[in-house]
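Let's do one together. I've listed all components of the complex below, 686 residues spread over four lines.
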Amino acid sequence: MAGVDLSEREQKVLRLLIEAHVRTARPVSSSAIASDRAIPLSSATVRSVLRSLEERKFILQPHTSAGRIPTDRGYRHYVDFLMKPAAPSGSERSAIDGGLSGFSGTDHEIVATEISRIVSDLAKELAVSVAPGAAGIVDRIDLVPLSPGRAVAAATMRSGVTRTVAIALESDVENSDLGEAACLLNEWLRGEPVAAAETVLLRRMRRASPPVRQVLRALLAARSQFLTPGEGQSVHYEGARYIFRHPEFASDAACLGDILDSEETLAEVVGGASTTRAVTIRIGRENPLRGMRRMSLVVGSYRVGGGVGRMAVIGPTRMKYPRLVGLVEYLSRALDGMFGAKR
Amino acid sequence: MAGVDLSEREQKVLRLLIEAHVRTARPVSSSAIASDRAIPLSSATVRSVLRSLEERKFILQPHTSAGRIPTDRGYRHYVDFLMKPAAPSGSERSAIDGGLSGFSGTDHEIVATEISRIVSDLAKELAVSVAPGAAGIVDRIDLVPLSPGRAVAAATMRSGVTRTVAIALESDVENSDLGEAACLLNEWLRGEPVAAAETVLLRRMRRASPPVRQVLRALLAARSQFLTPGEGQSVHYEGARYIFRHPEFASDAACLGDILDSEETLAEVVGGASTTRAVTIRIGRENPLRGMRRMSLVVGSYRVGGGVGRMAVIGPTRMKYPRLVGLVEYLSRALDGMFGAKR
DNA sequence: GGTTAGCACTCGACCACCGAGAGTGCTAAG
DNA sequence: CTTAGCACTCTCGGTGGTCGAGTGCTAACC
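Okay, and this is what the predicted structure of the assembly comes out as:
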């Protein structure tokens, strides 16, 4: 696997070609590579190297007598073997640390929003962030009365993640009904995966007394914010403006609309990444989505109790991998540290 | 003002021209209008009418020997005097009513998300929704302990809107500290506009005891979801894919990125609309934003207690005004009815 | 044998040009 | 006032020609 028999020189040429292409967004000519000091070769020799790289599908020519551009496979090799993640600069690190400080005890939705902002600001790319969500096992559910007719529901997961929502009640619901509803909920749901909550509620609530049933109905209405099993609704993104600036999307911007639109899709794309590595990279067609064939994804994950939060940078396959990987990696570790998880 | 002295015939021609242009997205020729049964005139006569409309800037020619397209002013006249809002069909009405049912007691953020989904589904356009937000006066603030180290904060406004957020606390915070913090918060903030909350907290928290201060700090960290004065963060949108399909944006899609990106901007654009009318229309350059010069906006509002929620459809100036106005109007009234407000 | 210079070849970008077609403006007659 | 007729203008698509970038090949060179 490692290198697929690429010689030292071929690797070097491939690296230079990719880095030049990332800078210029245009096909790279043999002479452009030959003029690099690191390669003391003539353009003719470079061409023969390019020819061999092309035969093995690391690069391709958009048309005869054009320069070469990397294929997905070329980028993959670059990412796996040729590049070194670039750690964020000091000022960037302090921007990250400063942006995260003070959030350690906050609702994870808020942290996720902040993360997408930080990433897109620094990366200058579209950034997506998926909060840990209520994934996992329900630990307890509280129902707390506020003023008459209003209550707060809070679900705490074994992972420590808490979701809250305000519900409105008819006036005939007493505090004792609320208490009874809370007791029932804990009895039914404690130790259960949150994914099952909706089904359980629907099946069991028929037997409850009318006022209790009313409370449960109100919870069901709010389920999209409260009892989402995975990373359903909790997708945040920031930096849409950046992705439109890339010349590769100037022609068909329509696919970008589809991507931005569906949070389910985004969650799926980002969520499919590995959780054992800090950073996962998906290049071009490695991505299952048709609309993302020409984009790459750098996904980082962080652990909060039993849940996993994720952040990703989305851009053209021609993206600044070393910088972005370094950025996402740093942020992942910072968040892991912040929430006390070890890998 | 009314009509700016347009004759009956001119109005009719303008209406037909606009409706044809909305259908075809292309300049409308005199013969296309003349061939309409409602206008028993020759194309030559229509041309002289068009000429007079053009002199008064209701329409323009993209270039000599092309058909005419409406100007912003033309659309404005159409919207104000020539069109009649088209009430949603029966199936659409039931889609709206069904989509909203069961949400009457829920957090307004959730309702707003659902609204943007409903509108974009039916309108087939980009739909934006701004939740009523915590605008207005603080009525009370509750801090409720959950499991050790976790608490829920709930802010209830005079308007009845409630916002909740979960906060994490160091273990050295006792329940009594929480109670003291709640007392202080109510003392400081009750009757105050929520916009002032952040400033008040920052100024006063220095005097509090360390554990209480910790609670207040946690609240400040969560302020973006909790104590937002207006419609700060609570912007939802849906249907980005639709706006990319319009031929007018095929060339320069970049401006769309800017619009989708900044929630502040969106909130500003949508929020600037009148609250006395059910529906406000902004056409092209009537919009303060440079990037929206070629777009129109149909904004509806609904009242919840003292707060105002809003929804809007965003599309090219060439949009289906009667249909969209009818839709937004219906939804606004439905929401007003649901939350018991009268206009 | 690997490397290089030289040269012919290919292809896209750009421009000018042309003809067809759409649509107008003008004018004179109804 | 309306209309038919006609000349005029402008866009659009296709064609041909030039230019330059970049390659592939080959023969000479180290």
